[in-house]
Amino acid sequence: MAQETSTLSISELSDLVVKIFENAGLSGQQASATADVIVAGERDGCKSHGIYRIEGCLRTIAAGKVEPKAKPELTDDGSAILRVDAKGAFSPAAFKLGAPALAERARQLGVASLVINSCTHFSALWPEIETLTDMGLAALAICPSYASVAPYGGKEPLLGTNPIAFGWPRPSKHPYVFDFATSIAARGEIELHRRAGTQIPEDWAVDVDGEPTTDPEKALAGAMMPFGAHKGSAISTMIELLSGVMIGDMTSPEALENLGNTTLSPHHGELIIAFSPEKFAAGRPGNPFVRAEVLFDAILGQGARLPSQRRFAMRDQTMRDGVQLTSDEMQSLQSFLA
């Protein structure tokens, strides 16, 4: 039997989530920025990154593993590397502070990077990417997580889910955006299977004995697998190096040791790189945005789809009709305010 649903506007859902985080002790700045990325996930039909994430954030706050009222600090030495110290808070407020400066520097130099240090990261990376594509820039974002993925050929957690996201601006259209974990599936997807009491595909994870499992409980206690075997393992290791070691922040094993368990959001860093297509294409024939559309049209012309198309279609729908939440989801939100 289908559950009854409630429909909230984007602003109504946003106000509710902000209130939940303010009641949990976050400052207005932190609550607003954190709510933005959660509401964006729900708006786009990404259930594993929508209001589902609230419970984990609240657990992390209650455990004292995130600074609720920290004010992020931007450091700009005039180079292509900008830095924001999140001071132990959730990452969205730090990115929101650094993004305008990153965009300006990328337009000036052609390429610039934003290093976010000492942040607690729980969300997808496409909100950061789309902020920059909305400014006309191409962008790449990466970060580690906590050790939960076995390297190819291994059986024990060592690497993080280590997401990578990229975006290309498309004038008057939704950008080209992909965002995926370098594990074969996001940990949140396995958690959703656990909650639903359903099995996972056999190639997603191994149990504590290193044996393949379809039981999400055993998978969460064991280790996930990298996507693409040795290729995903190598990309994940690159992410550990660039967004952990290189920026002077925690790698996934260090983040897990700091956290103590995998039920809370991890503390580490993030690296975002922004590119100006006009600067890179200067002096060469053709408009880079027009040439990109030729490529996209060729992909679509073969019957393939571009990444995020379904997400953007859901966004268009919810922006028009509102977000539908089940009675269980509404009760969950209300319980967070109790």
Automatic annotation (TrEMBL):
One GO MF term attached to the UniProt entry: oxidoreductase activity
Q: Which Pfam families match?
A: Ldh_2
Concerning InterPro entries, the annotation shows:
Mal/L-sulf/L-lact_DH-like_ah, Mal/L-sulf/L-lact_DH-like_NADP, Mal/L-sulfo/L-lacto_DH-like_sf, Malate/L-lactate_DH-like
Q: Which UniProt keywords apply?
A: Oxidoreductase
Q: Which domain of life is it from?
A: Bacteria
The similarity comment for this entry is: Belongs to the LDH2/MDH2 oxidoreductase family.
UniProt xrefs under PANTHER family: MALATE DEHYDROGENASE, OXIDOREDUCTASE-RELATED
Q: What name does the UniProt record give this protein?
A: Oxidoreductase
Which species expresses this protein natively? Ahrensia marina
